[in-house]
Amino acid sequence: MHSLPWKTMVMTVALLQVCFSGEVESSLSLSDKITELPGQPQVSFQQFSGYVNVDKKKQRALFYYFAEAEIDPASKPLVLWLNGGPGCSSLGVGAFSENGPFRPSGEILVRNEYSWNREANMLYLETPIGVGFSFTTDSSSYKAVDDKITGMDNLVFLQHWFVKFPQYINRDLFITGESYAGHYVPQLAELMIQFNKKEKLFNVKGIALGNPVLEFSTDFNSRAEFFWSHGLISDSTYRMFTSGCNYSRYVSEYYRGSVSSVCSIVMSQVNKETSRFVDKYDVTLDVCMSSVLSQSIVLNPKQVTERIDVCVEDETVNYLNRRDVQKALHARLVGVNRWAVCSNILDYELLNLEIPTISIVGSLVKAGFPVLVYSGDQDSVIPLTGSRTLVHGLAKGLGLNTTVPYRVWFEGKQVGGWTQVYGNILSFATIRGASHEAPFSQPERSLRLFKAFLEGRSLPEMF
């Protein structure tokens, strides 16, 4: 990879900055500055959004939204957030439904009191190409997209983003995300560390993964026990779902276009008992839930045709499809008529699901990078039991001793969840009462967890 042109540009912009003042934005970032989003309350922090071209020949551009920290951004770390899918939007799901500064409400935006930009400078990336406002002028780039292509594009995005924002080059950088970002985040961190061996650019300080896909079989097959233990399936169906046809086998067959008769029978019974009127991403929540939060359609393939009973008004979709909003965001629609939560034009290599990333997580821990895996405990899509098993197995394989024994942690005067830490570097935590999208359903507890992670501190064991 040739890095001289962008490096030269970064240095030039940085030198110009020094001539004026330490924290003045580059002229490149100023063109992406958001004056004000339609309907937003007045805030003191700066916002930016726009495009970073990752391939000029094919005009492949990734869209980002960046909310600087509420107070003293110069002292706060930089955090990249990635949503999953694959193919779902970090802008619509992460920024506007989970941990960003605003939530749409009718015609206006309301402040998210537990926004993660209280603790960090938050960068949301719509990736891969074809997701949200990210686009290409060559439609062949939407075909056969896989983890490798996505990882390289994300790496190039960050390199070029630092040209726009050179003041963040040496800043502590954390990479976070949820769901299929269990693939995106470790793979990107690995690429950044490899890049740093040739040329130091990324000051990576750790990764955090929420309800992540890390190892296909373990993650998916923990679903049967979760269903059974929460009373969603019968004893006999639980036995069928573990011996006759487990969930990883079903998904594997489904994406190869050859579902066996036994798997068809088992899944039919599972679907009948779990009921389409229970939200699989939060089994305690009533089913009327915004389609914005159904980000992991790939993880529930049978539900693609079951688009039932979502809330009548999807506020985020309505908001991001307003022309005045798109203008304020410096966004445009290319090749699609409407902005969508999950891409309708992206053809992702879904069998990448079966490639484990837990080994990459292990290599990051081994190299000294802190890792947090956290689980909303009401999620049946990627249940906490699978994630906990994987983290414990990884700790054992790396020879890490328990440094914080399994215990409760608190937020306010309530139990926030449970946690265990290995070797002061690998952590597992649950968020009590949280869904697959933990910062949406339990914003206060999620913010507490996020803050502790950034500071490298143990979660509070008393209130």
Shape: globular
* Radius of gyration from CA coordinates: 21 Å
Structural class: alpha/beta
Count of individual domains: 2
Spans where pLDDT lies below 50 across 5 or more residues: 1-6, 8-23, 303-313
In terms of DSSP E residues, the strand content is 15-25%
What series of H and E elements makes up the topology? HHEEEHEEEEHEHEHHHHHHHHEHEEEHH
Helix fraction by DSSP (H/I, runs of at least 4): 25-40%
The CATH first-level class of the largest domain comes to Alpha Beta
Give the strand tally. Answer: 13
First and last CA, distance = 51 Å
Named CATH architecture of the largest domain: 3-Layer(aba) Sandwich
Mean pLDDT: 90
Largest sheet: 11 strands, mixed
How many helices? 16
* CATH homologous superfamily assignment of the largest domain: Alpha/Beta hydrolase fold, catalytic domain
CATH topology of the largest domain: Rossmann fold
